[in-house]
Amino acid sequence: MKLERKHAIVLLAIAVWNVVTYARFIKALADTEGRPTGYYVAHTILIIVNFAIAALLGTWGVRAYKGAAKESQSSSV
User: Fold this and answer.
1) For residue 3, which phi and psi values (nearest 5 degrees)?
2) What gap in Å lies between CA 19 and CA 55, rounded to an integer?
3) Which pLDDT belongs to residue 77?
4) What gap in Å lies between CA 22 and CA 47, rounded to an integer?
5) What dihedral do alpha carbons 54, 39, 37, 49 form, nearest 10°?
6) Sorting pLDDT into bands at 50, 70 and 90, what band is 31?
7) What is the chain's mean pLDDT, rounded?
8) Angle at 17 (CA atoms; ends 56, 7), nearest 5 degrees
9) What is the pLDDT of residue 2?
């Protein structure tokens, strides 16, 4: 399956969105007090998983973008 630039941009945008929203979530989590330990453990796991998803989607997006750029250069020659 070939991914075009528009697909790469969507993947990169989702990756950036995950990082931005969960970075803010970390701040909000740090500002809370008086919650049970399970609350912090569960939310920390969610944050780690979402950063891993962002890294994966970002990697795929960069590869797709480079592949689409390479494909457009070879077709224009």
Assistant:
1) -100, 135
2) 9
3) 58
4) 6
5) -20
6) very high
7) 92
8) 60
9) 82
